[in-house]
Design a protein that fits this description.
The protein is of the alpha+beta class and 324 residues long. The chain contains 10 helices and 8 strands.
Length: 324
Amino acid sequence: MSTPKRQLVEQGRLNLDDPAGKHVPEIDEMTLLDGSKPNKRITTRMLLAHTAGFSYTFFNEGVRKYSEERGLDEFDPGRWEDYKTPLIAQPGEDWNYGTNMDWAGKVLEAITGQTLGQYSKENIFDKVGCKDLNYASLFDQSALSRMAGLHQRSPDNTVAPREHFRGAQFDSAGAGCLGTLEDYLKCILIMVNEGKAANGAQILKPETVNDMWKDQMPAFPDADAKQPFKRNIMPSRPDLSNPTIMDDGMPKGWCISACLTKAEWPTGRSADSMWWAGLPNLFWMADRNKGVVNMILTQNFPFGQAEIMNTWLGAEKAVYDSLA
């Protein structure tokens, strides 16, 4: 989601520090969980940095209860209305992972007059050579018929198939893009190659990419005291996620694109690398200092399984060892 938004900045069509309500007025109508009004307007930068205050139903018990009481569910039926949940923090004052990117996608659609899928296909996916990467508005049945199955690991450690979620009925910037590992890596590569794709297409300017690597966390009040990456993310849906261990002893930050590593990892990953994940244990990483990107897609719930994370990091170490 960060790449198309930064293209709009390059084109002079978007200022990240303007209120997002300038483009999507309904975001200014959102309240906190207690019903109070936010003390400031949400900006697009806050949305991209996950400091706007939104969370997910599966990562916050208050948001889960709010949605359940009103029949809202971002998975099924997955309407845009299901994503309009209250803030859990004042805008720009803390980091919380949630539906921020989905709101950012609505900002892009308001500016361009296109769906997120249409814009991304024309300006990114086609240019980098993606064949199987797209959003809901441009899915076709042949692609959907080739989707990898989902699985669920139970508390007794057995693994069984589970049904796919219905998914969002709009182009969800946070969780609505489907594709192959090869196509995803083509897009991630842009971040370690000064905005250029493997086929030579210039998607972003080098200076834009450099700016996207900057840590956004020191900008909010009491950042040192709040220490958002010293707090583990506790799930409100244990079937979907284990606790997300953020306090693992490794210093972190958050840039416009993803989580930043602030120290070298035992795998060989450089300090100042970026990484993040998707809920069915989908992990990716970009190391611009050593020119390495990687990804593992497992389609397995709940999130944060040690077996899967160890497999990912073991494969990553093997890659770095081979480059030594």
